[in-house]
Amino acid sequence: MNKFQGTGVALITPFNADGSVDYNGLKNLINHLINGGIDYLVSLGTTGETATMTKDEKKKVWAYTAEINNNRLPLVAGIGGNNTLAIAEDIKAFDTTGYSAILSVSPYYNKPTQEGIYQHYKYLAEISPLDLILYNVPGRTASNMSPETICRLANDFENIIGIKDASGNFDQFNQIMRDKPADFLLISGDDPITLPMIALGASGIISVVGNALPRQFSDMVRNCLAGDFKTALPAHLSLVEFTRLAFVEGNPAGVKAALKYLNICNDTVRLPLVKASANLEQLIVSEIEKLSQLA
Description:
Layout: E1 6-10, H1 23-35, E2 40-43, H2 55-69, E3 75-78, H3 84-93, E4 101-105, H4 114-127, E5 131-136, H5 138-141, H6 147-156, E6 160-165, H7 170-179, E7 185-188, H8 194-200, E8 204-207, H9 214-225, H10 229-238, H11 240-247, H12 253-261, H13 278-294
Parallel strand pairs: 1-2, 1-8, 2-3, 3-4, 4-5, 5-6, 6-7, 7-8
Helix pairs in contact: 1-2, 3-4, 4-6, 6-7, 8-9, 9-10, 11-13, 12-13
């Protein structure tokens, strides 16, 4: 499980101006992140705009990401949805070459009961060739995975190895940490609360802002995991404004604006998402320039 300690980054999917996948931009991004010291990559999570991508596009992006990564870092694939049988077929058909785990979001829109969520993941765990990381993000799914359900799954299935939790609920985090198996990972799903979550015992973060600022973010996380919060806290606080700006007009428009400024890829997003406004883009650029002076 140590391969998923520290900073994972949920990769954006770069697009060309015509909306097609920008593979050169994706190559630039992967190398930018590896050179920036992050610990693992997550391909085609929510931040990758997967809701707007075809099955063929996903297959090609997964394969290309594995090729460019070339086993330099552990690699996780985002495979989730709200149709259990369809997700199971996607997992069975997935080419696992170069991948270590699957991140699977809790079913959205259906609003299943806790027993429904349990049975959903039970079905996936029993057919998955790779370890599973649960993903709880109530702000997108309209339902919360309870600590009881999370820990029940963690105890019942050895290949369910962790949860990315973006609920922001510290009562929930307390219960998970108290009741989970010792080797089950609680992973932050919210950039702004990574430091206090690690203080509670979380193993790290699957980050969005790390796309743009991998060195600053991964160094902060590394210090937290080493128990050096005296060093980590100023770094955490220096990232507060950039993190706020990255999400103020939705994800991933803000971080794509930052990547455009850093000359990694352009800032194209697919409808119904739209690019960051000119005003926000300027604020993001100013904040990056400020952070570069602190480095």
